[in-house]
Each structure stands twice: as C-alpha cells, then as structure tokens.
Amino acid sequence: MPINKVVASCEQAVADIPGGATVMLGGFGICGIPENLIAALVGRGVRDLHIISNNMGIDGFGLGLLLEAGMIDSFVGSYVGENKLLESLMIAGKINVTLVPQGTLAEQIRAGGAGIPAFYSPAGAGTAVADGKETRIFGGREYLLERALTADFALIKAWKGDRMGNLVYRKTARNFNPMMATAARITIAEVEQLVEPGAIEPDHVITPGIYVNRVVHGQTYEKKIERRTVRERA
C-alpha cells in the first residue's frame, strides 16, 4: 500500500507546533502562501515564533494575522513594505527583524536543505548588511560569509499534491515553497488539489514526497491581490 501522509485538517496538521519554534512559511508576497495552515496556527495562539519568510504579506491577511495575534518574536525576510504593522513594530523596536537581500535569503534556505552550513555571497558587501560578518576577496571582489537557514517546521503551499507528498506548484508560488520543503525538520504541505498516487506525471513533480511529512487539502482560498494598480480610463 502507498504511504498516506494526508491529515484530516489544518488544525491537526499544526497541532504540535510549540511556542518558540522556528517556522518557515512559503510564498511570495501573498501569492502561494499556505492560507489555511496559517489560519489554523493563529487558532492555536502559540507565542514567540521565529518566522522565516520572504515577507510578511499584508495587514489582516495571511502572515499578517500571525503578527496581529502577537505570536511572532522574530522575523527573517527580505521585504517589509506591504505590511504597515510590521513596519511600525520594527521602527518601535518591538520585534526583532533581520532583513536579508532576497537572493541571499533564497540561497540560505536552499543551502540549509542541501546540508551546506554557509556560503559566500557578494550581495550587501560594503553596506550595513556586512556588519559583523566574515569577508573574503575572490577574483578581486568582496564576498560575505552567509550562514544557511533551517527550521523546525515549514508550512508550504502547492497547487497539486498526492497522498505520498509529491508536489506540483504553479507560477510564482514556486519561488520559496520548494526550497523550504527541504530545509525543515517537519514539512507540512497545503494543497489545492489532492490526488491519488500516480495521478501526477513523475516528470512534473517539483518536490518529491521524501521531503514532505504531512499533506492537507486546503478548503478555502481568497487569493487576494497585494497591490491593485489599474490604468486610468481615458
């Protein structure tokens, strides 16, 4: 019989995430975020979470709900701009925020999943990003030593997944979700479409099920637009 990693609900999927855990959350802006898993985690109300995500999304939705619930102790990411509450908390010194160049963040997560403890990157050399970091010169250019990132849990979102945990993503949702799936001790995947083993063409699998511990079928999606811009009518 095929391995069945499906759990009955998002609440069950996140039931063992404790306070103080380091949690990676997939997505880019508010695209490809695990909306239902985030809502279930908010419902648990655990505190002092250490969040690793590209950004904190927007106020009142997705990751913004964790922030509003006072559940986040620290945040590592590359972007603040669309979340006014995060901006205000950061300025007031009420949350520990580490901003990382976006490419560096992606590579830190990828390295964590690959078992590479650190790497050299030119991004941020000669700026405040370099403060306190080891530097070396390669080919006449300065590089910073950046450490890999790993987590206790990764909450990710896929378009389609089977009961064995094999996942397929769509478009922008592929940016951080696949990397985070490899970099956590426990990976929980929320999928829009749950299919039987064999329904996904093997060549189409992006995250193999070996990296996924739990699969849950997401029930509702708002799929908001982060910043709506429209051309004025003539």
Write up this protein.
The structure is a single chain. By secondary structure, this protein is of the alpha/beta class. It has a domain at 10-103 and 150-217: Glutaconate Coenzyme A-transferase (3-Layer(aba) Sandwich), CATH 3.40.1080.10. It has six helices and eleven strands. The strands form two sheets. Strands 1, 2, 3, 4, 8, 9, 10 and 11 form an eight-stranded mixed beta sheet that branches. The chain has a three-stranded antiparallel beta sheet with strand order 5-7-6. A hairpin with a 2-residue loop joins strand 6 and strand 7. It is globular, with a radius of gyration of 18 Å. The mean pLDDT is 94.
What is the C-alpha radius of gyration, as a whole number of Å? 18 Å
Order of helices and strands: HEHEHEHEHEEEEEHEE
Assign the CATH class of the domain at 10-103 and 150-217.
Alpha Beta
Shape by Cα distribution:
globular
Number of helices: 6
**Helical/strand content category:** alpha/beta
Please identify the oligomeric state: single chain
Largest sheet: 8 strands, mixed
Number of beta-strand segments? 11
- CATH architectural name of the domain at 10-103 and 150-217: 3-Layer(aba) Sandwich
Measured distance between first and last alpha carbons: 62 Å
Mean pLDDT: 94
Q: Assess the beta-strand content as a share of residues.
A: 25-35%
User: Are there runs of 5+ residues with pLDDT below 50, and where?
Assistant: none
